[in-house]
Hints:
The structure is a single chain. With 222 residues, the protein is of the alpha+beta class. It has helices at 13-24, 44-50, 71-81, 92-107, 110-115, 125-134, 136-150, 162-176, 183-193, 196-208; strands at residues 2-6, 29-33, 60-63, 66-69. Bound molecules: glutathione. Residues 2-86 form the GST N-terminal domain. InterPro entries: Glutathione-S-Trfase_C_sf (IPR036282), Glutathione_S-Trfase (IPR040079), Glutathione_S-Trfase_N (IPR004045), Thioredoxin-like_sf (IPR036249).
Amino acid sequence: xxxxxxxNKNYSSWSMRAWLILKHFDLPxxxxxxxxxxxxxxxxxxxxxxxxxxxxxxxxxxxxQLAVWDTLAIAExxxxxxxxKHLWPQDRLQxxxxxxxxxxxxxxxxxLRSLCPMNIEADLSxxxxxxxQQHAGLRQDVQRVEQIWxxxxxxxxxxxxxxxxxxxxxVMRLMSYRLPVTELSQQYMQKIQHLPAVRQWxxxxxxxxxxxxxxxxxxxxx
Length: 222
Ligand SMILES: N[C@@H](CCC(=O)N[C@@H](CS)C(=O)NCC(=O)O)C(=O)O
C-alpha cells in the first residue's frame, strides 16, 4: 500500500494537493501526519523528514521502496500507476492544458502564496482587505487565477483532475482572506468546496487546532 506523509491539514497546501488526488480517485494509501514546527534543522519535522526524503518537505509518497517527493512528481507518478483512473483529462489537448495550469501553479503565483498562506480555520477577512489594497502583485495573481477558472467546464477540464487539485488550496485562501472574486469564480469555488474529499480535508483541518506560529504571520496564539 502507498504511504503518504503530509503536514498540518490547516496549513499544508502542498500536502492537501497530493492527498486530494489520492482520496478523490480512491487510490489505496495510508496517511501519516508529520506535525509542523519552525522547520529548524534539529526540530522534529526535519528529523522525521530526513528519514524519508532528502528535500525535507511534505508531501512525500512511499511506494515499493521508492520515495517520491514534490507534488507534481507525485501527481505524475500516480497518473502513471493508475492510468484507468484518468487523473489527467483523456483528450490530448486538454491534458496538455491541464498540465500547463498545474505547472503554472507549481512554479508561480508567488505573491498570493507568500502573502496569503493557507489557513483553513482562520477568518482573515480584515487582513485580506488590507493586503488587497496594498499589493498590486496579489491582485494580478488573483486575476490570473480567475482567468484560468473562467474557462472551467464544470471542473477545469470537465471531470475533476490533477489540475483542480492544484487549485483547491487557492480556493481555501480566497475564502479565508475573503478576497473579492467574480460570481463565476465563486461558482467554481463552491464546486471545489462541495467535493467530498475537499470537505473531509477541511473538516479535519478545522478540528486540528494546532497553532503553529511560523505559519501565522497575522495571528498570535492565545
Ligand atoms: N515544491 C514542493 C513544495 C513542498 C513544500 O514546500 N512543502 C512545505 C509544506 S506545504 C514544507 O514541507 N515546508 C517545510 C520547509 O519549508 O522546510 C512540492 O511541490 O511538494
